[in-house]
Specification:
The protein is mainly β and 281 residues long. The protein has a single domain, classed as Neuraminidase. Helices cover 2% and strands 50% of the residues. Strand 17 and strand 18 form a beta hairpin. The longest helix is centred in the C-terminal third of the chain and has 7 residues.
Length: 281
Protein backbone atom coordinates (compact mmCIF):
# COMPACT_ATOMS: atom_id res chain seq x y z
CA UNK A 1 0.00 0.00 0.00
CA UNK A 2 2.94 2.29 0.82
CA UNK A 3 6.70 1.92 0.17
CA UNK A 4 8.70 0.06 2.83
CA UNK A 5 12.41 -0.52 3.35
CA UNK A 6 14.33 -3.11 5.31
CA UNK A 7 16.14 -1.68 8.35
CA UNK A 8 17.96 -4.73 9.79
CA UNK A 9 19.73 -7.55 7.98
CA UNK A 10 21.29 -9.79 10.63
CA UNK A 11 20.32 -13.51 10.42
CA UNK A 12 19.29 -13.40 14.10
CA UNK A 13 15.72 -12.53 15.09
CA UNK A 14 15.23 -8.77 15.18
CA UNK A 15 11.80 -7.35 15.74
CA UNK A 16 9.11 -5.53 17.70
CA UNK A 17 10.33 -1.97 17.44
CA UNK A 18 9.47 1.07 19.54
CA UNK A 19 10.10 4.69 18.54
CA UNK A 20 11.66 7.55 20.46
CA UNK A 21 9.23 10.44 21.11
CA UNK A 22 11.03 12.61 18.51
CA UNK A 23 10.69 9.84 15.87
CA UNK A 24 14.46 9.86 15.27
CA UNK A 25 15.39 6.50 16.85
CA UNK A 26 14.11 2.95 17.08
CA UNK A 27 14.77 0.36 19.77
CA UNK A 28 14.26 -3.28 18.81
CA UNK A 29 14.85 -6.70 20.31
CA UNK A 30 17.68 -8.94 19.08
CA UNK A 31 17.34 -12.65 19.84
CA UNK A 32 19.68 -15.46 18.85
CA UNK A 33 19.33 -18.64 20.90
CA UNK A 34 22.83 -19.66 19.77
CA UNK A 35 24.34 -16.28 20.62
CA UNK A 36 27.99 -16.52 21.73
CA UNK A 37 28.93 -12.87 21.15
CA UNK A 38 26.68 -11.25 23.75
CA UNK A 39 24.44 -9.58 21.17
CA UNK A 40 21.10 -10.61 22.65
CA UNK A 41 19.20 -7.67 24.07
CA UNK A 42 17.78 -4.31 23.10
CA UNK A 43 19.44 -2.30 20.36
CA UNK A 44 19.00 1.38 19.55
CA UNK A 45 19.37 2.57 15.96
CA UNK A 46 18.59 5.76 14.08
CA UNK A 47 15.45 5.68 11.95
CA UNK A 48 17.57 5.32 8.80
CA UNK A 49 19.31 2.21 10.19
CA UNK A 50 22.64 3.83 11.07
CA UNK A 51 24.62 3.56 14.30
CA UNK A 52 23.21 0.54 16.14
CA UNK A 53 24.08 0.43 19.87
CA UNK A 54 23.36 -2.28 22.45
CA UNK A 55 21.58 -0.61 25.39
CA UNK A 56 20.49 -3.74 27.31
CA UNK A 57 22.19 -7.13 27.30
CA UNK A 58 20.00 -10.21 27.82
CA UNK A 59 16.77 -11.66 26.48
CA UNK A 60 14.30 -8.77 26.18
CA UNK A 61 11.00 -8.43 24.35
CA UNK A 62 8.13 -6.02 23.65
CA UNK A 63 9.99 -2.81 24.52
CA UNK A 64 8.09 0.46 24.82
CA UNK A 65 9.70 3.92 25.00
CA UNK A 66 8.29 6.29 27.64
CA UNK A 67 6.44 9.41 26.40
CA UNK A 68 9.10 11.70 27.92
CA UNK A 69 11.90 9.74 26.23
CA UNK A 70 13.70 8.92 29.48
CA UNK A 71 12.94 5.21 29.97
CA UNK A 72 12.22 1.97 28.17
CA UNK A 73 10.02 -0.74 29.70
CA UNK A 74 10.13 -4.33 28.43
CA UNK A 75 9.51 -8.01 29.14
CA UNK A 76 12.67 -9.55 30.66
CA UNK A 77 13.86 -12.90 32.02
CA UNK A 78 12.36 -14.81 29.05
CA UNK A 79 8.98 -13.23 29.73
CA UNK A 80 8.89 -13.82 33.49
CA UNK A 81 9.32 -10.22 34.62
CA UNK A 82 8.84 -6.64 33.49
CA UNK A 83 11.79 -4.28 33.84
CA UNK A 84 12.79 -0.74 32.96
CA UNK A 85 16.06 0.89 31.91
CA UNK A 86 17.14 4.46 31.12
CA UNK A 87 16.75 5.05 27.38
CA UNK A 88 20.46 5.82 27.10
CA UNK A 89 21.29 2.50 28.75
CA UNK A 90 22.16 1.78 32.34
CA UNK A 91 21.13 -0.22 35.38
CA UNK A 92 17.88 -2.17 35.31
CA UNK A 93 15.06 -0.65 37.36
CA UNK A 94 12.71 -3.03 39.14
CA UNK A 95 9.39 -1.32 39.81
CA UNK A 96 6.65 -3.94 40.15
CA UNK A 97 5.97 -5.56 43.56
CA UNK A 98 7.21 -9.13 44.01
CA UNK A 99 3.59 -10.26 44.36
CA UNK A 100 2.91 -9.51 40.68
CA UNK A 101 3.18 -12.66 38.56
CA UNK A 102 4.41 -12.34 34.98
CA UNK A 103 4.70 -15.38 32.69
CA UNK A 104 5.25 -15.57 28.93
CA UNK A 105 5.35 -11.79 28.71
CA UNK A 106 3.29 -8.99 30.18
CA UNK A 107 3.23 -6.74 27.07
CA UNK A 108 3.78 -3.53 29.07
CA UNK A 109 2.65 -0.19 27.64
CA UNK A 110 2.85 3.39 28.92
CA UNK A 111 -0.06 5.73 29.57
CA UNK A 112 0.21 8.94 27.49
CA UNK A 113 1.33 10.99 30.50
CA UNK A 114 3.92 8.37 31.51
CA UNK A 115 2.45 7.89 34.98
CA UNK A 116 1.10 4.35 34.52
CA UNK A 117 2.01 1.09 32.83
CA UNK A 118 -0.64 -1.38 31.68
CA UNK A 119 0.27 -5.06 31.43
CA UNK A 120 -1.03 -8.62 31.51
CA UNK A 121 -0.78 -10.05 35.01
CA UNK A 122 -0.82 -13.85 34.97
CA UNK A 123 -2.21 -14.17 38.50
CA UNK A 124 -5.89 -14.20 37.63
CA UNK A 125 -5.11 -13.49 33.97
CA UNK A 126 -6.05 -9.84 34.34
CA UNK A 127 -5.35 -6.59 32.55
CA UNK A 128 -3.73 -4.49 35.25
CA UNK A 129 -2.15 -1.07 35.66
CA UNK A 130 0.67 0.08 37.92
CA UNK A 131 0.89 3.74 38.91
CA UNK A 132 4.55 4.74 39.03
CA UNK A 133 3.79 7.84 41.11
CA UNK A 134 1.62 6.24 43.80
CA UNK A 135 2.74 2.59 43.64
CA UNK A 136 -0.90 1.52 43.28
CA UNK A 137 -1.68 -1.72 41.44
CA UNK A 138 -5.14 -1.98 39.87
CA UNK A 139 -6.87 -4.88 38.11
CA UNK A 140 -9.13 -3.65 35.29
CA UNK A 141 -10.39 -6.63 33.34
CA UNK A 142 -10.51 -10.38 33.86
CA UNK A 143 -12.67 -12.95 32.08
CA UNK A 144 -12.45 -16.69 32.66
CA UNK A 145 -10.81 -18.59 29.83
CA UNK A 146 -9.47 -15.48 28.09
CA UNK A 147 -6.17 -13.61 27.91
CA UNK A 148 -6.52 -9.80 27.82
CA UNK A 149 -3.52 -8.76 25.71
CA UNK A 150 -2.88 -5.01 26.08
CA UNK A 151 -2.32 -3.13 22.83
CA UNK A 152 -1.84 0.41 24.07
CA UNK A 153 -3.61 3.35 25.67
CA UNK A 154 -6.14 5.63 24.04
CA UNK A 155 -4.62 9.07 23.51
CA UNK A 156 -6.79 10.60 26.27
CA UNK A 157 -5.29 8.16 28.80
CA UNK A 158 -8.73 7.03 29.93
CA UNK A 159 -8.95 3.66 28.17
CA UNK A 160 -6.75 0.77 27.08
CA UNK A 161 -7.06 -1.16 23.82
CA UNK A 162 -7.14 -4.91 24.42
CA UNK A 163 -7.17 -8.06 22.27
CA UNK A 164 -9.13 -10.53 24.40
CA UNK A 165 -8.07 -14.00 23.27
CA UNK A 166 -9.94 -17.24 23.93
CA UNK A 167 -7.32 -19.59 25.38
CA UNK A 168 -8.83 -22.63 23.65
CA UNK A 169 -9.65 -21.38 20.15
CA UNK A 170 -7.16 -18.45 20.16
CA UNK A 171 -9.82 -16.30 18.49
CA UNK A 172 -9.84 -12.69 19.60
CA UNK A 173 -12.19 -9.81 20.13
CA UNK A 174 -10.98 -6.24 20.42
CA UNK A 175 -12.10 -4.24 23.44
CA UNK A 176 -11.77 -0.69 24.74
CA UNK A 177 -11.37 -1.06 28.51
CA UNK A 178 -11.77 1.99 30.75
CA UNK A 179 -8.83 2.60 33.07
CA UNK A 180 -11.14 4.45 35.45
CA UNK A 181 -14.49 2.70 35.83
CA UNK A 182 -13.93 -0.69 34.14
CA UNK A 183 -16.39 0.09 31.33
CA UNK A 184 -15.82 -2.27 28.38
CA UNK A 185 -16.70 -1.36 24.78
CA UNK A 186 -16.30 -3.89 21.91
CA UNK A 187 -14.38 -2.70 18.84
CA UNK A 188 -15.71 -4.40 15.71
CA UNK A 189 -13.34 -5.11 12.87
CA UNK A 190 -11.79 -7.65 10.54
CA UNK A 191 -13.20 -10.86 12.04
CA UNK A 192 -12.72 -12.94 15.16
CA UNK A 193 -9.42 -14.25 13.90
CA UNK A 194 -6.13 -14.19 15.79
CA UNK A 195 -5.39 -10.52 16.49
CA UNK A 196 -2.10 -9.45 18.01
CA UNK A 197 0.07 -6.37 18.54
CA UNK A 198 -2.55 -3.64 18.28
CA UNK A 199 -1.20 -0.15 17.50
CA UNK A 200 -3.17 3.11 17.64
CA UNK A 201 -2.11 6.03 15.45
CA UNK A 202 -0.74 9.09 17.30
CA UNK A 203 -3.94 11.05 16.61
CA UNK A 204 -6.08 8.14 17.82
CA UNK A 205 -8.04 7.79 14.58
CA UNK A 206 -6.57 4.58 13.14
CA UNK A 207 -5.71 1.13 14.42
CA UNK A 208 -3.15 -1.27 12.95
CA UNK A 209 -3.30 -4.92 13.92
CA UNK A 210 -1.97 -8.28 12.77
CA UNK A 211 -4.47 -10.96 11.80
CA UNK A 212 -4.09 -14.47 10.45
CA UNK A 213 -5.34 -14.94 6.91
CA UNK A 214 -4.39 -18.32 5.52
CA UNK A 215 -0.89 -19.38 6.61
CA UNK A 216 0.53 -16.02 7.65
CA UNK A 217 -0.12 -12.98 9.78
CA UNK A 218 -0.58 -9.74 7.87
CA UNK A 219 -0.97 -6.11 8.90
CA UNK A 220 -4.33 -4.41 8.47
CA UNK A 221 -5.58 -0.92 9.29
CA UNK A 222 -9.05 0.30 10.27
CA UNK A 223 -10.81 3.13 12.15
CA UNK A 224 -9.93 2.95 15.84
CA UNK A 225 -13.60 2.90 16.86
CA UNK A 226 -14.30 -0.04 14.54
CA UNK A 227 -15.28 -0.57 10.92
CA UNK A 228 -13.94 -2.04 7.71
CA UNK A 229 -10.22 -2.58 7.28
CA UNK A 230 -7.61 -2.24 4.55
CA UNK A 231 -4.57 -4.49 4.00
CA UNK A 232 -1.41 -2.58 4.89
CA UNK A 233 1.41 -5.14 4.68
CA UNK A 234 0.42 -8.66 3.66
CA UNK A 235 2.74 -11.17 1.98
CA UNK A 236 2.40 -14.74 0.71
CA UNK A 237 5.78 -15.91 2.01
CA UNK A 238 5.92 -14.86 5.67
CA UNK A 239 4.44 -12.99 8.60
CA UNK A 240 4.18 -9.23 9.01
CA UNK A 241 3.33 -8.12 12.55
CA UNK A 242 4.40 -5.97 15.49
CA UNK A 243 3.58 -2.57 13.99
CA UNK A 244 4.68 0.57 15.83
CA UNK A 245 3.75 4.11 14.76
CA UNK A 246 6.34 6.85 14.80
CA UNK A 247 5.03 9.61 17.13
CA UNK A 248 4.94 12.08 14.23
CA UNK A 249 2.52 9.73 12.43
CA UNK A 250 4.61 9.58 9.26
CA UNK A 251 6.03 6.05 9.51
CA UNK A 252 5.45 2.62 10.98
CA UNK A 253 8.08 0.06 11.90
CA UNK A 254 7.09 -3.59 11.76
CA UNK A 255 8.51 -7.10 11.88
CA UNK A 256 8.67 -9.24 8.75
CA UNK A 257 9.57 -12.92 8.93
CA UNK A 258 10.73 -15.12 6.08
CA UNK A 259 11.76 -18.62 7.09
CA UNK A 260 13.90 -18.19 10.19
CA UNK A 261 14.75 -14.56 9.48
CA UNK A 262 13.12 -11.81 11.53
CA UNK A 263 13.84 -8.24 10.45
CA UNK A 264 12.63 -4.70 11.07
CA UNK A 265 11.07 -2.85 8.15
CA UNK A 266 9.97 0.79 8.04
CA UNK A 267 7.04 2.01 5.96
CA UNK A 268 6.22 5.60 5.02
CA UNK A 269 2.52 6.13 5.69
CA UNK A 270 -0.03 8.77 4.75
CA UNK A 271 -2.71 9.03 7.42
CA UNK A 272 -4.90 11.40 5.42
CA UNK A 273 -4.93 9.08 2.40
CA UNK A 274 -5.96 6.14 4.59
CA UNK A 275 -8.68 8.20 6.27
CA UNK A 276 -10.01 9.13 2.84
CA UNK A 277 -10.13 5.50 1.71
CA UNK A 278 -11.84 4.47 4.95
CA UNK A 279 -14.16 7.49 4.74
CA UNK A 280 -13.11 8.85 8.12
CA UNK A 281 -13.82 12.55 8.57
Amino acid sequence: MFPARQLTFDPAQQGFATWSPDSKYIVYQYTDLNDTLGNNGLWKVSADGAGADLIFKGIAEHAKWSPDGRYIVFDADTGNSIRMIPAAGGDVIKFLPDSVLIQNGGLPCWSPDGSQIAFLERKGLSLSTFNLRTGKLKSLFCEEGRLPLPGGWWIDGKSILVASMDRQTRKCTMLKVSAENREIIPVTGHNENFYRHLALSPDGSLLIYAAMEGKYLGLYIMPSEGGRSLPLAVTKDGHTEGAAWSPDGKKIAFTRTQGRNFDIWVMDINIEKIKSELQIK
